[in-house]
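Sample intake — DUF373 family protein
Collected from: Candidatus Marsarchaeota G1 archaeon OSP_C
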Amino acid sequence: MDNKKILILAVDVDDDVSKIGVKTPVVGRESVLDAALKLALTTPEDTDVNAIFGAIKQFDKLKSEGFSDIEIALVSGSTSGGVEADLRIREEVSELAQKLKPSGTIFVSDGGEDERVIPIVQSVIPLFSVQRVTVQYSKNIEETYRVLASYIRKGLTEPRLVKYTLGLPGVLILVVAILAVFGFIKYVAYFAAFLLGIVMVFRGFSVLDVIHKSWESDPIHLIGRIVALIVIAAAIATDVEIGQNYTNNVSAGVELIVKDTFDYYVVAMVVYFSSIIASSYMKGTYRFWKDVTAISFILSVRPAIFYLINYVLNNISSIAAVEQFLIKMFSALILSVSVAILSFRLEKWVQNRLLATAQGATQ
């Protein structure tokens, strides 16, 4: 390398040297040292100071090792950063290349944003080496704070994140204040857990996306599912309350649960299957026999289940009771099969009638 002209290059991407009245490019050890001293006295915390002094140290080291054809220079970008800074750095490096005609350059960096312009320098002058000069621990801290600041900025500005970084904490703070006013502050932890659980479930299972797609493709069935879930949730809440009140009398609690909430689950299932039938009708497919059969079976088997539970809770076991239960189940089965056959034939008749109407319209 000793027969080649080497350029030691320091880059101030954000053009801090312009604040001290230094116009770049700066060429020569004394001029670069003067710029470094001025910058150090003005902003000693700036990492660019380290890079410039590092470039001077690299220059002196190569000089002491016998490299005679060597030069040092400082270029800068722009306080605006981005493309404007890149264009100015390329312009100044090109000016140095024409003026000094180096065989290659040793790029001295503070290890931060300055290394982003290495491809720009390399596109003008061949790159011999990259030397990083950082104060111990400063690089890691700088990168950590840069990443942290980036995430904080995104969290506070991007619409898709603001609802989680500001919206949910805002709701929690508002509810805490309301609970405190009415003397229910002890329930804050429960509410926070509930809110967190709701968010995790909605995000984990993409509930909002599923609801949106379901509403666009099948709104009636979606409404039926929502209503069924609400009814089931009400039934479960009632069951829990009954269970808490009858911890000392389990059989009475179970009997009350059956009498008070069993029909809730029946209604929920009927609503669910009815929404499928309505949705099929609105779409013009008219496929309903399975859902009609399901509704028929649920309603017809209900008396048999009530009868069985009543005898189990009252510890009644007799051949007559078993026979009565089997008769009710057999009746429910016969009724369901009959409804299935009739609804299947009705479905086929409706579909054939519609097909015939459609063919007549096309002819």
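Post-analysis note: Strands lie at 6-12, 26-27, 70-76, 104-109, 127-132.
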